[in-house]
Amino acid sequence: MKLIATDMMQEINLRMESIINHMSKNGIGAILVASGANIYYTTLRMFRGYVYIPLVGDPIWFVVKPNIFEKENHLIPIHKPEMIPGELEKLGYAIPENIGLEFDALSYSEITRLKGLFPNSQICNGSVPLSQARMVKTDWEIDQIKQDAMHQSEVYRRVVHCYKENMTDLELQIEIERVLRLEGCLGFTRTAGSMMDINMGSVIAGDNADAPSPFDFSMGGAGVCAALPVGANGTTLKPGETVMVDMSGAFNGYQSDMTRVWRVGDIPEIAYKAHDCSIKILRACENIGKPGIKVSDLYAIAEKIVAEEGLQDYFMGHSQKAKFIGHGVGIELNELPVITARSKVILEKNMVMAIEPKFVIPEVGAVGIENTYVVTSEGLQSLTIFPDEIQEL
Amino acid sequence: MKLIATDMMQEINLRMESIINHMSKNGIGAILVASGANIYYTTLRMFRGYVYIPLVGDPIWFVVKPNIFEKENHLIPIHKPEMIPGELEKLGYAIPENIGLEFDALSYSEITRLKGLFPNSQICNGSVPLSQARMVKTDWEIDQIKQDAMHQSEVYRRVVHCYKENMTDLELQIEIERVLRLEGCLGFTRTAGSMMDINMGSVIAGDNADAPSPFDFSMGGAGVCAALPVGANGTTLKPGETVMVDMSGAFNGYQSDMTRVWRVGDIPEIAYKAHDCSIKILRACENIGKPGIKVSDLYAIAEKIVAEEGLQDYFMGHSQKAKFIGHGVGIELNELPVITARSKVILEKNMVMAIEPKFVIPEVGAVGIENTYVVTSEGLQSLTIFPDEIQEL
Q1: Distance between CA A118 and CA A121 in Å, rounded?
Q2: B positions 81-100 inside 8 Å of A (CB)
Q3: Among A68, B163, B348, B392, which residue's beta carbon has the most beta carbons within 10 A?
Q4: Closest chain B residue to A68 measured between Cα atoms?
Q5: In what order do the strands lie in the sheet with A60-65?
Q6: Is the pLDDT assigned to residue A232 strictly greater than 90?
Q7: Cβ atoms within 10 A of the Cβ of B330, count?
Q8: Is residue B175 a contact partner of residue A214, using CB atoms and an 8 Å limit?
């Protein structure tokens, strides 16, 4: 589904309604957006510039670069942000008392410069209402993620054809990357935060699953370079090991997130047991994950099932454990809500989350699956459609 | 060359000397490093945590995650940054009056939290001494970038074998990406700043060279998605067009940056003229680029040569122009110095810079080359060794 201009404005207006609703709850009179992810969220474009969102009145796009959009409505070309207050005055916009800037997405230097534009206002964290709005997707956003998931599933179907005996985990990953790219994957993983470096995803085999990573991914992997310690470490795929594939689902401005497991030769019973436990957790989450339920209940049910099966030692890592079992996904790979024991978020219709209860079995590798779900009144609906079972390579 | 532990400490100590020298010039008593790029620069590791660099005394590594380094010297495991002042006190470190934090690399929220650790100190921009230190490379760093350039050149040699008639620019890029990855490329481009999104580089053909991008790359390209408007746009490569290849040189924690141009069929004389002008600019820069020379002189000589040839309309873009002709390169793709008309930087031995005088010829495409250079007392020495001429695909 391509947006034509009118649909695009309708879609943008829907998002604005949600942002303004959250601004209002947080007592914010206007937000000045500048980060790439939020520029895209609020305009469906990517440009160097600013989007001014007032509580009352039309949003204004201040565009530094490129200058090719100049003929459009709601758009004012500027050379530098210091021109914004004067332009707002010309438009008859009063500068509100409380202005939100993206404290979580912009550098301290950037925020300091933007604060200077509004010397008489109180500056607060505009990242909060923006991420709250982004947490609940529009139908169009869900459709984008559905398309991502469809392409991603199509590529996962071809994983088995990427494999050749005696290849390394990295070689397998490289062949999957090529198939992903030819299928339309953008080859770029947009993440939030400063310690989330990744290329097109990760293929983790055998004991490498237990190598801890500094990044906030559910599984680690040593990588092949100290500067990017995540994912495949270049060892040959061996019988008796699992191969966890968690590769990019970014085919448009959005992305899906999916993990499946393959095996080389026979693997021990404990790996199957833990994998089945992951599926059991997902089935339980799918059932209870309805609007009104606490996100922390999803975490709690996962912990309960893991304890019943006596698999705590392997859950979400072995020598280093992740403290979440899932996360929102959308324009960025790591959005709200984060599925933790202490989350205060209540599920709402149209939230989209990846849930990834995973286990690390020493000397075998990682098992467990990850789906991207949308919250519906019937429970969680998976957008990533692919067999759950461990497949043979 | 692999670092063994002692060499690693020697290399780190060299960097510390330089950082401390710049701290001293800037009146900074200590820096607390937290960004990935600077954690790597100061430790040759990537971890979630902090490196405390005092003007006097040993630097301390505070590691949140992973916890596997615990047995090493200079290393203190912590759960949260709020533990740092207490640990420093235990070690007998006095908290200085002026503490530097990475204002350019960390978010406003992150800096605000870290500022809270030092309520009695003045907080200033620690990004400044760190980027000044990183601007001048150690011999070991130059060796890393040399290795990057060697691998990158090897891949460029195979570009012609990646090409098939009637393929799109994107299909060519995907085949180059695979060769890069098999050659050891990490597949991740580490950049500084919030509007520098890129996958593994760009292949730009024909008129797509003139599509302006919001990102701060020398050339644009429309890309194939509004969320990532840069590089290949998916059109079929046609006779009469140039194909500019500016793909990743990131094979270790460092990277080289190199651009070369191929053509499909015959291209007009003006394209050759502009390409030769680019080479002429590089030869001039190579000659004058010695320690003591102003970076702005490199820009000035480029502008002078372009004017002499009457090629101003095409220089550094046509419908939108970049205002720099090069940039430092190292751990990040865009380091200091930026080669602009107004740069105040004086060249020093061992600075490493990519210089990329490029032209966009309407209806033909982009021409010009880019090399990564190290500053020596003899002038600029290119690390990216590959024929300069436009090659046929």
Answers
A1: 6
A2: none
A3: B163
A4: B212
A5: A75-77, A60-65, A48-54, A30-33, A98-101, A122-125
A6: yes
A7: 28
A8: no
AA letter at B9:
M
H-only helix segments in chain A: 5-25, 36-43, 84-90, 108-115, 127-135, 139-157, 159-162, 169-182, 269-288, 295-309
Burial class (CB in 10 A: 0-12, 13-18, 19+), B114: buried
Q: Provide the 10 A C-beta neighbour count for residue B66.
A: 21
Tell me which amino acid residue A155 is.
V
| A370 CB burial (10 A radius; 0-12, 13-18, 19+) | buried
Pairing state of beta strands B60-65 and B75-77?
parallel
Residues 6 or more apart whose CB falls under 8 angstroms from that of A2 comprise none
- Residue of A40, A108, A141 best to disrupt the B interface, most CBs of B under 10 A: A108
Supply angle C-alpha B244, B157, B272, rounded to 5: 40
- Average of per-residue pLDDT across A288-306: 98
Q: Quick one: closest CA in B to A191, which residue?
A: B197
The residue type found at B244 is M
Chain A residues with CB under 8 Å of B127 CB are 109
Nearest to A50 by CA among A58, A61, A38: A61
Q: With beta carbons less than 8 A apart as the criterion, state whether B63 and B69 touch.
A: yes
B109, B181, B320 ranked by CB distance to A103: nearest: B109
Share of chain A above pLDDT 90, in %: 91
Q: Does B166 touch chain A (CB under 8 A)?
A: no
Q: Which H, E and C letters describe A2-64, residue by residue?
A: CCCHHHHHHHHHHHHHHHHHHHHHCCCCEEEECCHHHHHHHHCCCCEEEEEEECCCCCEEEEE
Residues 120-139 of A with CB under 8 A from B: 125, 127
Mutation target to probe the A interface, by most A beta carbons within 10 A, among B11, B48, B101, B108 is B108
Rounded distance between C-alpha atoms, residue B227 and residue A40, angstroms: 7
Nearest to A227 among B46, B171, B198 (CB): B46
B262: left (phi over 0), alpha (psi -120 to 50) or beta: beta
- Determine whether the interchain pair A227/B48 forms a contact, defined as Cβ–Cβ distance below 8 Å: no
pTM (2 d.p.): 0.96
CB contact under 8 A, A187 and B199: yes
The answer to whether A211 and A219 are in contact (CB under 8 A) is: no
| B232 touches A: beta carbon within 8 Å | no
DSSP string, B100-160: EE-TTTSBHHHHHHHHTT-TTSEEEETHHHHHHHHHB--HHHHHHHHHHHHHHHHHHHTHH
Per-residue pLDDT, B135: 98
Could you report the per-residue pLDDT of A146-163, keeping only the tens digit for each? 999 999 999 999 999 999
- DSSP secondary-structure letter at A353? E
Name the strand (E) or helix (H) holding B54: strand B48-54
Contacts of A9 (CB under 8 A, 6+ apart): none
Contacts of B319 (CB under 8 A, 6+ apart): A68, B210, B212
- Beta-bridge mates of residue A248: A257
Helices B127-135 & B5-25 angle (0-180, nearest 10): 120
Structure tokens at A348: 């709402």
- What is the CB neighbour count within 10 angstroms for residue B348? 14
CA distance A110 to A377: 41
Question: What residues contact B232, with CB distance under 8 A and at least 6 apart?
Answer: B168, B169, B170, B172, B173, B202, B203, B204, B205, B208, B221, B223, B224
The ipTM of this complex is 0.96
Residues A30 and A53 sit within 8 Å (Cβ to Cβ) = yes
State the smallest CA–CA distance between residue A291 and chain B in angstroms.
30
